[in-house]
Predict the structure of Late embryogenesis abundant protein LEA-2 subgroup domain-containing protein.
Amino acid sequence: MSATPYHNGYDQPMPEHSHMQYGYGQPMAEPSHMQYSGAPQHTYPQQQQHSSMPEHVYRDSLQPANSSETLADPWYNQNAERSAPQPYDVEAYSSADKRKRRVCCCFPTRKSCCLTFCLIFLVILIILGVLVWYFWPTIPEYGYVGPYEPTSTAQFVHLAPGSEWKPGPDIPLVKSGITLTSLAGNFAFSYGMGVDVWLNNKNRFDIAMDRLDVVGRVKGENGQFIDAKNFKLQINMVNVNFPKNANTTEHVPLDLRYNATFSQIIGQKDPFLQLLATSCQSSFLGISPSSPNAIPLTMEFAVNVAPTAVRRLGITINTTIGPFDMACPAQLKDQLKQVDTLTRGLLNGALNSITG
């Protein structure tokens, strides 16, 4: 190996082949690995001429002449150790990779996350559907007996507080027994009836109501419902309960009330009073039966209740109770005749003045 003016930084001569000339008259450029940290940096003329040097010639010039020279080069050995592949820790990489790949809480893949939550949502929907189907209310079978005129209030245990219902007719004019001398007052009466309603509750919950307020209607002689301007038919009860899977009978109070001034009655052909006159075959307050044949009092109730068990769900039971047909009770017929006796003289004079 001949001496060379170029030095590799370790007081050792460069390999002989690195100073071969390739027709350029200049020594070859120092190998590129000599320019990393740890070795002196040099600039050679060949580095400036690399752009015009054939690529395969320049690449071959960077390789050592033989393996013994390579092993003898301390700088080469030092950098070879640095560039050598590092040990591969499979367990550490796998653990880190698993943590990195966790998505959506603790699921390894997005697909498994979506499938799991969809399954949970589907199970919840199925459970809700079964519960709604199981507890959905149905209109129970029912029937009734009556209406009838009760003899006492003992069996009507669910009357609403403050209710004025009482069995039978109640006409203040008849109670007073005083012959009417003026048309300045009102004609009022009430009639308390009862009806026994049985209900076969096949629902899976009790049909319980804290309060039951129902308004009924009455059909006139023409078969149409009468405008409830001067009268009302109502039911007022509390703590009504029909146990589940049981057939229960409830005594229901019907309260019929009428109130109007005499000026609204005389000569006005009130349809409700006309119905009473024909049904009871009695003349009173200048109103006579329109037919010699008595017709029944026909009543009907539209019930809209929300059982306590499903009230928060906004579920209601809507049904119609009736129509009830009731013949004029004998006690009411007698009291209407007394009304005619107490008012006949005054009303005849009033009617004559109107017709005259």
In short: Residues 16-83 form one domain. The chain is about 30% helix and 25% strand. The first helix runs from residue 45 to 49. Strands lie at 141-148, 168-170, 186-201, 207-219, 231-242, 246-261, 297-305, 317-326.
